[in-house]
Sequence to fold (332 residues):
Amino acid sequence: MNYTLHKDFSEINPQEWNDLLKESITHTPFLRYEYQHTWWQHRGGGEWNDAQLVLISAREDEKLIGIAPLFIAEYENQPALLLIGSIEISDYLDIITRMDDHARFISGLLDFIASENLPNLDWYNIPDSSATLAALKSESAARNWTHHEEMYRPTPRIKLNGDFDEYLSRVEKKQRHEIRRKVRRAEESGRGVRWYISDMQDVESEIDAFIHLMEQDPSKANFLKEPMRTQMREVIRTAHENGWLWLAFLEADGQRIAAALNFDYDNKLWGYNAGVDRAFMELSPGWVLLTYILQWCCEKKRTEFDFMRGDEEYKYRFGAVNQYVMRAKVAR
Fold:
């Protein structure tokens, strides 16, 4: 297996990258070539202004076996080798390789990193189900390297099987009644409550409308400093241009009062971000829109709604069950 260090995304074919991702141990929209390239262009919305790209690929008889999308940056007062997408806005990260090739790709990758005298690994947002975690631990032990692993964030999810009533039956009884009550109250309010999925005919206008609702939350407004705002817009454009953007709005009194920015990818809906107009809280716009979204998921036979990172209480009220993303550190 031959490893190559690339200094630019143009050195790897996007189609070849995405074809490998479809067969990879971790298949998420955050690992697609388009997302990773967009993230790197804006350095995570200014999260890493001083960073050095380190794309590592491995081939065997010209066949692409694996990709390690990495970068070097100063982190916690020392240089670190991080996964592209770290840390704040990319919920699931990993290396890209098939399960059959994973163990030897990881082993060779660590040898290559050492031979190139690259910094120690500090990898965030690895799914707790990823084979990468066990591989890093065993390879570190074999080399007498230091290894540390910790839970970074919960990622609550709702499994779905196409039956909305069956889904509701799994929600705690009191919360099930509350969901139905809030939807019924909104629908019977006489305020023209309706929801729809954006057709994105005017892309920039739709992005503006979403960000306006998102920044009604003071913490999100603070998060959306100009570099992050630019990054967010580019992520939305990228998802739209590549066919996995799912943006929905809830209306009342003829105006948009809630929005949900999701990714419709790999037969799942990934809940990326949302916003509500605080002037309409008596209609419970966030709950109502989420209920409609889950109904849509069931009707369209999506297998899961993934809330992604964060332990906000409403996620569990809707019956979400925790999985986790992890942080793994390896030092020579």
In short: The two ends are 22 Å apart (CA to CA). Residues 151 and 326 are 5 Å apart (CA to CA).
